Amino acid sequence: MTKVATAVAHPNIALIKYWGKRDAAQQLPATGSLSLTLDIAPTTTTVELDEAAKADYGTLNGEDLSGKELSRVSKFLDHVRERAGSTTYTKVTTVNEIPTGAGLASSASGFAALALAAAKAYGLDYSPEQLSALARRGSGSACRSIFGGLVEWLPGDDDASSHAVALPSTDLELSLVVAVLSAGRKKIDSRAAMQTTVETSPFFPAWVEQVPKDIEEMKQHIAAADFSAVGLLAECNAMAMHASALAARPPVRYWNSDSVAALDLVATLREEGLECYATMDAGPNVKILCRPSDAEKIAERFRNEFGGINVLISGSGPAAYLVENTAS
Ligand code: PMV
Are 22 and 29 in contact (CB under 8 A)? Predict the structure, then answer.
């Protein structure tokens, strides 16, 4: 009997960031967060149960999974097996159409696709909210990639209630221009960086107090389809996240000199009347929020300014979905 399922999930970029956990074991966040699921750079993952295997195994972009990556995937699958009452190991085949580990949310699309494919292959009949809570165990931000468009992660009180939901539909149209300043692996992984921030940053309590207010305000701006207010608040929130990280001891600094130059260019474009706003995650890359009609012009300016770097343009993307319903 073959139990196999393939799922596709897209990355998401937070407009109000998740930064810090209140429970590391269960991946419960210190606050809620709010994101846009992208329509570029999906992850496709196949989970195939293997009765003969003595451990989980698989590939990421054609290379054998090993070390930290394999143990993270396997730990997640242990969790799925526990829920499904199974002891069968599995082969995991993952293709990421985005540089892995460069602060471009590959862990979000990766664990969302893995959660959906594994739940199906192991026979868990889960709602999107349950799948979201499951994906959270792999990587916090992955819970948001189960849903499409604008998404809120409700911090919740426990494992089951900490999941994402899709926000009500809105007339707001957003594009995100991703300036890939560096596609290398990030130096400090977000888990360790968050923990250092939570434990040592004197600014962390202020961050935790601010985020719920930012989420409420952001939801109002989204409902009113007020692009300028959405963009400005997203930029302010991202800077506040990085401020809390920069104040950690030792400091957590993801920015490099190109990041600062990119933030300068965003400010210049705005002064020129090309309205756009910056956001940054756990890496040096800068993502620019803009109206869809301005995205190509903005991308071109970034390509010119940074010597032909890769610049991606994304719109609002879909919820995670199964490609083959082959579990039996
Ligand atoms: O889920 P993680 O551990 O990849 O955390 C991601 C955190 C940020 O990308 C920096 C912010 C966010 O909300 O996505």
Answer: yes
Region label for 156, one of left (φ > 0), alpha (ψ between -120 and 50) or beta (otherwise): left
Q: Which of 12, 19, 36, 214 to mutate to test the pocket of ligand 1 (most atoms within 8 A of CB)?
A: 19
Instruction: Find residue 151's DSSP bridge partners.
Output: 35, 166
Pocket flag, ligand 1, residue 31 (CB < 6 Å): no
The answer, yes or no, to whether the previous bond of 155 is cis (omega within 30 of 0) is no
Instruction: Give 236's DSSP letter.
Output: H
Test site for ligand 1: of 21, 141, 208, most ligand atoms within 8 A of the Cβ: 141
For CA atoms 26, 29, 32, 35, the dihedral sign is negative
The pTM score is 0.96
Specify the ligand 1 atom closest to the Cα of 33.
13
Q: What is the pLDDT along the chain (328 residues), one digit of tens a residue?
A: 469 999 999 999 999 999 999 999 999 999 999 999 999 999 999 999 999 999 999 999 999 999 999 999 999 999 999 999 999 999 999 999 866 555 566 789 999 999 999 999 999 999 999 999 999 999 999 999 999 999 999 999 999 999 999 999 999 999 999 998 887 766 788 899 999 999 999 999 999 999 999 999 999 999 999 999 999 999 999 999 999 999 999 999 999 999 999 999 999 999 999 999 999 999 899 999 999 999 999 999 999 999 978 899 999 999 999 997 554 4
